Amino acid sequence: MHLIITEKNIAAERIARILADRSYVETRKEGGVSTYSFDGTTVVGLRGHVVEIDFEPGYTNWRSEQHRPRSLIDARTIKTPTDKKIVNLVQKLARRAERVTIATDFDTEGELIGKETYDLVRAVRKDVPVTRARFSAITPQEIRSAFGEPAELDFALAAAGEARQVIDLIWGASLTRFISLAARRGGRNILSVGRVQSPTLAMIVDREREIEAFQPEPYWVLSVDSERDDVDFSARHTTTRFSEREAAMAARDRTVAPLVVTESREGQKLDRAPTPFDTTGFIVAAGRVGFSAANAMRIAEDLYMHGFISYPRTDNTIYPASLDLDGTLKALEKTEFGKDIQWVRANRRPVPTRGKKSSTDHPPIHPAGAATRAELGEERWRLYELVVRRFLATLSPDARWTTRKVLFDAGGEPYTTTGSTLAEAGWRTVYPYSDAAEHELPPFSVGERLPVKNVRLEEKETQPPPRFTQSRLIQVMEELGLGTKSTRHEVIGKLVSRKYVEGNPLRPTLVGRAVIESLEEHADLITKPDMTTAIDRHMQEIKEKRRSRDEVIDESRVMLHRAFDDLEAHGDEIGRDIMGRTVEEQILGPCPVCGSDLRLHHIRSSQFIGCVNYPECRFNIGLPVTTWGFAVRTDDVCPEHGLAHVRLIAKGSRPWEIGCPLCHHITSNRETMALMPSMTPALIERLNGRHIYAVNEVAASEPETLAETAGVDTKTARRLKDEAEQVLSLLRLRSELRKFVRSHVPPRRGRSHAKIMKALFAKGIDTVEHLASADPELVRSTGIGEKEAAALLDAARGLLNDRRLRAMGIPAISLKKYYAAGFMSPEDLLRHPAPFLTLKTGISPDTVHRHMELVCEALGRPAPRRTTRVQLERGRAELLSIPGVGESTIEKLYSGGIFDARSLIEADPHTVAENSGLPVRRIMDFQAQASTPDEAAG
Ligand SMILES: [Zn+2]
Ligand SMILES: [Zn+2]
After folding, report:
1. What is the pLDDT of residues 887-905, one digit of tens each?
2. Which bound ligand lies closest to the C-alpha atom of 594?
């Protein structure tokens, strides 16, 4: 069997279908992994890396004294399978294979995955031939030729990938641990540091500091408005920017009609057709049409996997001679682009455009197959169209603009205006993404005199450099050699998810800035691109077999040790520094009580606002638990309290705007304060003025202090305190009722629980007890349906009865048995004779009797007579000996209070009939037979 291993399942399926040609492809699933077989060939897809590199065991504890962060630099690394199912299947198939072809993606990462696969195969088969198939697009032509001329795995390229993997692990893990521990950050709040990530973040921080340090300078712009044959136009002074206001004003004052045309020059401008897409060029273009870098790459990969475009990770901007340009055009002929292709064919440039970078691995990104808008969906189509149009543009002639520059004189002041029109649209015919606009000028002739309608003097300011957009940052990273075509967009994504940067254009957060600035101070090396560029150079040397993998890794270990010398010497300082700066984003503003700062606190899932002056100042405001959203500060500030607004953010739902936390605190407590009978609006105002906002604060106050704060006498203060305590217990009961209703009445559109609760409280139903004895009609009037109201009342009664029975001392385990048999309340237990309860519940007669005693005692009733186990067993035998009495009759007799021959004979047949449901005649028959047992038996 010929085993082919691809990087992803979807590639496996497509490659199988291409190679099988017209043969039937059998799809099978083993342990959730698909295989595709035909004519003695089986294709299986990996899920990217199926093994992972990690430190050998013993390094998981961050706080280990023995293995401090620095020890990770020299820790040994091991490879472990991350996807056991696939690893097992690949090895199982390899055991049966006569030859193996590795068909992973064609780049460093793909070669490394190929090498990992090679190791897996070799582990079970020492001798099987292993070849490598390389292709840049999953199209029939590419795939057939790649498999027609199999090559060898490039071990040097894989070694370069491996070196990068190890170095990134060592750098990332040791530095992340060190910085996080120093700043006392753990769990979700760790501060990650990375070999490529940190210098990238440093660039963003740098730019932000440039913007902050920027001193805008004023300048003045002078222009005139005029017209020619009813067409308005304006011209600007040839001094583009006046730096002196006086000079600008003087020039303005000298500007007088007429505006005389002194010169009119016409020119031609060549507008070159764009070069083929490499990854960066593609990301930049996709950014212009609204795709983030990560999103653009995700979609591009998907288009590649489905054979619509060529491999999207490439540094190449020159089409290789082997690329069949005509074939590609022909393939697209039948798509929406048919007309564009006709145009390109008719106007085609002799050779396609070319960029500066040529690499041997992949061609530039180009279309690989025809697609329709319908099969791709809007998003994928937009990027596919971009790739197609770019390809067409690279085969199209340059565009040509006609430019005109006109010079004027007005009272001795020189003015100018320029215009341009597209003389030949060229490539712009098929590539409409650039925003170059035409600007047509009237046909001026020299010496012409025109009116001056208006002279405009505008004051402007110089602008700071712009923040980086994602695509601009990727370009700069590429220029500096930071990261690779495959990783750059992922690095930016990580910076965003780590909350180091936000927005687009990108802005550093306080945390991001704190981390970079303290690293800059103590271990500059980590934030500079130089080091990472050096490592990238070493990678290249490994690929070219000029250095070994281990040599390069060791060298980077030395560099890292040097960084740690500095870091460890200043660990405390770094920690204090970062903590000091990042606490800033938790500070909300002045504490209303003591004037120092209020800050947000997060402790596991609970969060609250407290005073930094704690415990001297105990002022605090509670917040909902984090399941409702993680509390963060926003940029808005309450004009009344000077506090930053608070927002709760939860994944996947809209943020909950709390607004000013103090305003929120006051309004949400005002209603409950009003529940106290002696509370008046004036009193609430007075208490709020003295920073008492909530009922629990009133309840917790000493009467004397409260009297003074509220300006009342001590007696009133005492009453207020009592009332506050009552309100608190009412609130507890109400909250219990709220929970109860919430768990029994499902929410529905237009019927929120808040609405129901409000209606219930308004009708005086504050507790589950109230609910149990409430009129069903009353409950229904709160918006609950008839059936639901009945069920809710039942449940409330059940809960209440359960509480009563427990309070009487009946253990939960017995209650469970009573409930299962349908005895739900104390009354139910007394309504039935003990033997019947025993029979139905399986609880022993003695225990049932004890329970009945407990219930009777609680209800002030006399206890029933006791029936022992022995009596019960003997009586049962007596009853069963009566002809016609079986198990089901016994149950009925028990419920009628009869448990032996004697109680049967003594009973009143009519009462028994009523309680048991047996006909009077039968009972009388039984009675007759029980009194003369011998006769009956005979
Ligand atoms: Zn305070
Ligand atoms: Zn406020």
Report:
1. 888 888 888 888 888 888 8
2. 1
